[in-house]
């Protein structure tokens, strides 16, 4: 679904340039995953898929369940024990079979792969060229709406959003920097970039659970070595504060994974005043709620009322 592109008065004033928000949070499933997963599922359906198998702790699983239901193809999603009840309920509302297994996505994914056959097609949450093709349409829409960005800011977990945006930029022959933002506890890309090796983190921690991939997909790592990818890390508190500020300024609830990217603009962590147009991908927040953010605030000893 085409999503709104809006100019943020608050973030534009703070950063002395035009800050544009691509509102992927307005997708039916609440995140950009609907765009990527939707394209992949549609392509596999054309190839004869009889069932979709996936592994996810949140947005990807919700998107597979929704798209499978739209295509009238049954879905099984394997989720780790850390998956929220809200995410599981959203998957089941679209008639997906949800199996809880393992302490991490890697363990859930191993079980998911054991269900795959010629007709039971595996839908990877972030590592598939079909996903990147679907995401590339974000860039198509931005250009068609009359905005040619000088830089893009986005959050990165497994790497599909970065891969898809780069695919779109290449399609339109745009050679601009992309700021890839992670929280300090989920910095698989930034760590790999520093070491110049496609490494796996020993563990991932923190509140941005949908960014919690121990290893970035190989394609995203390769792009970080070849293109203008700038790694940025922010704290959990930075990400959470940005969620509340964005809710106050734009009346839109997003999850901490999305707040991570927004915090770069709210806290002016990067100097953008020399640019005309900066695009931020508001990637989503289907699995979060105001009560959840308030609970996180207590855990981090943060009072949102005093900060806004």
From TrEMBL:
Record GO terms (molecular function): L-serine ammonia-lyase activity; threonine deaminase activity
Domain of life: Bacteria
Domain Tryptophan synthase beta chain-like PALP: 2-284
Cofactor(s) required, per the database record: pyridoxal 5'-phosphate
Keywords annotated in UniProt: Lyase, Pyridoxal phosphate
InterPro entries found in the cross-reference section: Ser/Thr_Dehydratase, TrpB-like_PALP, TrpB-like_PALP_sf
Top EC group: lyase
Reactions mediated catalytically: L-serine = pyruvate + NH4(+)
Enzyme Commission number, as recorded: 4.3.1.17
GO biological process: isoleucine biosynthetic process; L-serine catabolic process; L-threonine catabolic process
Family of this protein: Belongs to the serine/threonine dehydratase family.
Protein known as: L-serine ammonia-lyase
Lineage: Bacteria, Pseudomonadati, Pseudomonadota, Gammaproteobacteria, Moraxellales
